[in-house]
Write a structure and sequence with these properties.
The protein has 499 residues and is α/β, with parallel strands linked by helices. 29% of the residues lie in helices and 25% in strands. The chain has 3 domains: 13-139, Rossmann fold, CATH 3.40.50.980; 164-392, ANL, N-terminal domain (Rossmann fold, 3-Layer(aba) Sandwich), CATH 3.40.50.12780; 396-496, GMP Synthetase, Chain A, domain 3, CATH 3.30.300.30. The protein has helices at 13-29, 46-58, 71-81, 93-99, 123-129, 164-180, 200-212, 224-233, 243-250, 275-285, 360-366, 406-414, 450-458, 486-491; strands spanning 37-41, 61-64, 85-89, 108-112, 121-122, 144-149, 159-163, 190-193, 215-218, 238-241, 265-269, 288-294, 301-305, 319-320, 325-329, 343-348, 355-356, 373-381, 387-392, 397-399, 402-404, 419-429, 433-442, 469-473, 495-496. Helix 2 links the parallel strand 1 and strand 2 (61-64).
């Protein structure tokens, strides 16, 4: 664990396992039983991971809560999940103070930090006083393991029930994916996790390392210069970053001065990255690059672009991972489309979630009679089986009778050297039905005009795909998970253009 002040805490796998056993025994002594829930509302830290693993050993489901959530959002998750207990830290204390005596919140609270609130038990005392005996693990592979909430970009977050088999298959897929590249998963590998542990991708990375007894280096905040320092000081061999993080690292002061000779694989995902960013990462970091695509409901990875394919298929999100079947269907008819045609991507396999918690009708909506999970993503597949992300089903724009896919325009915008970030939405238009609206965040060249942005897109894509309205922003609006809030962009005022 690397703290923001340079504090370093090292825990061996043996010590971690013993502490996870103590968490499990302590929860049992507190009366928690198999199938009940314990919410975890904390920054990235060792206690977060101990609670996850200890609870799962007992058959209690950990419920990660986004540590950026405010009181109303946290209250929703606690009530919706029926959590019987909550572990929280100093950063969450103010929010929990306002919620702890509500009828829909847990009865048991465990506090990680100093000056424990009167309604909570000190987490350190709870762990120290519990039995250290090895836990006789309760669950079977098909039992429920975790309750992970979606980001809630299109409504309230939904609780995805993941089984132990989902989690184990995800670890297997990761290990075999490396083997197909001719690489052996390294026991001496040192992986950096700086993405938040309320996200399934970060949890999956940790479980990969735990499975192999490899080293995980954990950070509790993303500060680009600090991350670069840790990459060097800890001789990190691999890490996973979202595109926004990747761009920030590339812009870190004195980038070229850091010794990254140990760094072998740069993982990227959670949002489209584009060929230009991938090429820049490969060149400047001097690493292999892999891209992962998926969603919480699939534990989460469904396709991976392996390092050996990055140069040949840079626009792709890769091919399906082991144990995940993929088909692409017409969203209206459900029939499979031909290769090269755009359709809704569906998945099937042992990483598929058990369903949405307390939402049987919503679960039935997304899982068809043959067991296929219908995602909200639009993709196309080429003749070699590579998948290309096009956009969200709900995001497709119909302008003048033409289908327009935001991801294609966003990719073109990201290729402009002066644009750091971009997002595209459709808004109502009396003439065209919908018009394309783009929001861009500029980098060093702050004098770029809306007209120049429009001309740039027009030089690469058909005229009907050009933005007819452009927002020049300091930052894209994001939810607490970091995903762009496109609904906010639809309402924001932009610079209208005659096009």
């Amino acid at each position: 664990m690397q703290g923001p002040d340079g504090r370093r805490e090292a825990v061996t796998h043996a010590a971690f396992n013993e502490r996870a056993d103590r968490v499990a025994n302590g929860l049992r002594e507190q009366g928690l039983e198999e199938g009940e829930k314990i919410a975890v509302y904390m920054q990235n830290n060792v206690a977060t991971l101990e609670t996850y693993v200890g609870a799962m050993k007992l058959g209690v489901l950990p419920v990660p809560v986004n540590h950026r959530f405010k009181a109303e959002e946290v209250g929703y998750v606690l009530a919706d999940s029926d959590a019987e207990a909550l572990v929280f830290d100093a950063d969450a204390a103010d929010v929990v103070d306002t919620l702890h005596d509500e009828a829909t919140t847990p009865d048991r609270y465990f506090y990680v930090g100093e000056r424990t609130p009167e309604y909570a038990n000190p987490y350190a005392d709870f762990v120290a006083s519990a039995a250290g005996d090895s836990v006789d693990i309760v669950p079977t592979r098909l039992d429920e393991a975790m309750l992970m909430y979606t980001s809630g970009t299109t409504g309230d977050p939904k609780g995805c029930v993941l089984t132990h088999d989902n989690v184990l298959q995800r670890v297997t897929n990761g290990a075999v994916g490396s083997a197909t590249e001719g690489k052996r998963e390294r026991v001496d590998g040192r992986s950096l996790i700086v993405t938040p542990l309320f996200h399934i991708a970060a949890v999956g990375m940790f479980l990969n390392g735990l499975y192999l007894s490899a080293t995980t280096v954990l950070m509790d905040d993303f500060v680009p210069q600090r991350v670069m320092e840790v990459l060097e000081a800890e001789a990190i061999t691999g890490g996973f970053f979202v595109p926004m993080m990747a761009r920030a690292l590339l812009n870190a002061p004195d980038f070229e001065e850091y010794d990254l000779s140990a760094f072998e694989t740069f993982g990227i995902g959670a949002a489209p990255s584009g060929r230009e960013l991938k090429a820049t990462i490969r060149e400047r970091f001097g690493t292999d690059l892999s891209e992962a695509f998926g969603q919480t409901e699939m534990s989460p990875t469904t396709t991976t672009l392996q390092p050996s394919d990055v140069l040949e298929k840079p626009d792709s999100i890769g091919r399906p991972v082991l144990n995940v079947m993929v088909k692409v269907v017409d969203p209206e008819t459900g029939k499979e489309v031909e290769r090269g045609e755009i359709g809704q991507v569906c998945y099937k396999g042992p990483t598929q979630f058990a369903g949405y918690y307390n939402m049987p009708e919503r679960t039935e909506d997304v899982i068809d009679e043959d067991g296929w999970f219908r995602s909200g993503d639009l993709v196309r597949r080429d003749e070699d089986g590579f998948v290309y992300f096009v956009g969200r089903v709900d995001d497709m724009i119909v302008s003048g009778g033409e289908n327009v896919y935001p991801a294609e325009i966003e990719e073109a915008l990201h290729e402009h050297e002066a644009i750091d970030e971009a997002a595209v939405v459709g808004v109502p238009d009396e003439t065209w039905g919908e018009r394309v609206k783009a929001a861009v965040v500029l980098g060093d060249r702050a004098d770029l005009t809306a007209e120049e942005v429009q001309a740039y897109v027009g030089s690469r894509l058909a005229d009907f795909k050009k933005p007819r309205e452009i927002l020049l922003l300091d930052a894209l609006p994001r939810n607490p998970t970091g995903k762009v809030l496109k609904a906010d962009l639809e309402e924001a005022d932009g610079e209208p253009l005659d096009a």
